Amino acid sequence: MQLRRRQSFVFTSAPSIRSWACAVGKKEGKGPLKNDFDLVLSDDQAGEPSWEKAESALQKMALERALSKGGLTADDLNLICGGDLLNQCIGTSYAMRDMRIPFLGLYGACSTMAESLIVSGMAISGGAVKKAAGITSSHFASAERQYRFPLVYGGQRTPTAQWTATASGCVILEQDGPGPYLRAATVGCITDWGITDANNMGAAMAPAAYQTIRTHLEEFNLTPEDYDLIVTGDLGYLGRSVVQDLFAKDGLNLDDRYDDCGTLLFDAARQDVHAGASGCGCSAAVLCAKLLPMMKEGKLRRLLFCGTGALLSPLTTQQGESVPAICHAVSICTNKEDTWIT
Amino acid sequence: MQLRRRQSFVFTSAPSIRSWACAVGKKEGKGPLKNDFDLVLSDDQAGEPSWEKAESALQKMALERALSKGGLTADDLNLICGGDLLNQCIGTSYAMRDMRIPFLGLYGACSTMAESLIVSGMAISGGAVKKAAGITSSHFASAERQYRFPLVYGGQRTPTAQWTATASGCVILEQDGPGPYLRAATVGCITDWGITDANNMGAAMAPAAYQTIRTHLEEFNLTPEDYDLIVTGDLGYLGRSVVQDLFAKDGLNLDDRYDDCGTLLFDAARQDVHAGASGCGCSAAVLCAKLLPMMKEGKLRRLLFCGTGALLSPLTTQQGESVPAICHAVSICTNKEDTWIT
User: What is the pLDDT of residues B271-306, one digit of tens each?
Assistant: First the structure.
């Protein structure tokens, strides 16, 4: 790998994405990507006695399906990197408990899918491992009761609220393969513009997304036109418009090269999700169900996948704190010889 | 880097530890390492309005002291990797909020110091960054109220309970330097031998430590005698004896080559800490206050630093679950040309 200025680096020996899979909940399975998921639960409890165990079960399904799609078993992996939104990341720990795969736990809130690609990509590109996976999940019901109210309370949601996706995605990387390839990454700095409304995560995370994308373009001397698609995840409708506004102020029009995973998972008008989707599983599911398949089919050649996370807790909100956010960008391409990033 | 069998790899271009620092609480400052800490709080609240904010303040002190000891500023770092025990790792997120350092959040419970060395070491050794730091913290009061009872409740502690250290440690790595050096690492698998007593973390984590150390020795064809010291952190007195028993059953006597950070931070008899110390800050503080200085002074040439973490949450205990644990081993040496690991 090679450092470019301060926050970015090139994966000189570009890790190849061998396989991927996602498993989602019932509501997600009725959205616009309904035909693209590997597994759709018929019951979001997945036969488990608690929502948290259901989340772990979902994550295990995504891993097992990604392994089988790649013709691999758990023993073939040297590393899995993952995390989730639950306190102490129990969604992931309990999913991985019986897998006997070397495990590095991450906490990046909804940026976890991108973070897991960066860490497993570094391990592969540097030669530390041969095959590694990134994984994450979220579950509407486990997130609601932990971050907000018990579901039975029936609390009213604000217009800026996003709907936590019940979803898990897993991506398996290897040293050599036919791609798509991880080409470069920009690791984000924590950004906090003072938003204290814990029901407006889009506004809290948008400045982090803006800063990381700007830094990525600057450190590699790129323009938005160098990408077929820049996708953030998961700012929702409101956060997406904030990012567009921030770039417009810089005289950069992202046009239809830019979208957000939080606006792609549900049909907001029909599915009553207010400002869009959120949760670690949202960008993971959109990556695995829509974006990577588009790359495989040649419909996308260069993708900047920008995971966004809000690093608050219910306690920091109670203590009157504003919401720190982060965004990590991963540059993915279909042609290893493509030299637009060097 | 080069993979060795399944879980281990060599840092072929060994990252050099440039500087380190630790900041600890009042009680820690009265223990056996009292003369070895960089900073000791006179009041564990650190002038902050909450315990959680005090923990963030402590972590910031450790980072700032490590930077100044290394003759660096925050701008010199390309990456910082860290996490803590608090829900959503807010101890770390809020400490890093204003630092403008590219940040990867980790969750490894009390294994975080070792995990942060592995991830930042991979980034350096692979060439992705030039200077990176690992950081973690824990705080007795923030941990007690989150995991157990409000302090004012005055709950009785069990004999197997450990005392969460109020401490933060930070280690800064660079590509080239005079050492000590990261030589190799073994990433652990989650291990769960069915312990359901959330007040007996030592017993829950000991099997993970045993498995990772065994794997490390096997994958590099080493014996315990190849190390001056193998140190786990933080199993406490009970967990340490379980590790010794497990090795004895294999016919391996660890003798005085083995110790545990949870037994080194406090004087258990005098300081009423029952089974010893715990918390992410425990192994971080012992590494920074005692072990790295011993390496710098030539009193230790080869160290196997094995961070141990219990990946439970209060909710998993309430749901009757057993405690998954993990251990990551980092091999540190003073002589880059030392070829005992190849």
Answer: 999 999 999 999 999 999 999 999 999 999 999 999
pLDDT at A50: 98
| Mean pLDDT, residues B34-57 | 98
**In contact, B321 and B315? CB cutoff 8 Å:** no
Burial of B296 from C-beta contacts in 10 A (0-12 / 13-18 / 19+): middle
Phi (first) and psi of residue B240, to 5 degrees: -60, -40
Packing angle, helices B112-125 and A112-125, rounded to 10? 60
Beta strands in chain B (DSSP E): 2-4, 8-10, 16-24, 39-40, 79-84, 103-105, 131-138, 163-164, 167-174, 181-186, 229-233, 258-260, 277-278, 302-310, 325-333
- The pLDDT of residue B96 is 98
Nearest residue to A120 via CA among A20, A222, A36: A20
**CA A302 remoteness from chain centre:** 17
Residue with the two structure tokens 């009042």: B26
**A253 or B210, greater pLDDT:** B210
Interface of A with B in 37-96 (CB under 8 A): 49-50, 52-53, 75, 78-79, 83, 85-90, 93-94, 96
In chain B, residues 311-330 whose CB comes closer than 8 Å to chain A: 311-316, 319, 321, 324, 326, 328
Picking from A185, A210, A232, A203, the residue whose alpha carbon sits closest to that of residue A312 is: A203
- Would you say residue A146 has pLDDT above 90? yes
What would the pLDDT profile of A178-234 be if each residue is shown by its tens digit?
Answer: 999 999 999 999 999 999 999 999 999 999 999 999 999 999 999 999 999 999 999
User: What confidence tier does A339 reach under pLDDT thresholds 50, 70, 90?
Assistant: confident
Euclidean distance between CA atoms B6 and B52, whole angstroms: 38
What's the complex ipTM?
0.98
The band of B339, judged by pLDDT with boundaries at 50, 70 and 90, is confident
3-class DSSP assignment, residue B40: strand
Residue-wise pLDDT tens digits, A44-67 = 999 999 999 999 999 999 999 999
- A55, A104, A147, A321, best to mutate vs chain B, most B CBs in 10 Å: A104
Q: Which A positions 156-195 lie with beta carbon below 8 A of chain B?
A: 185, 187-190, 192
Tokens encoding B82 = 């860290």
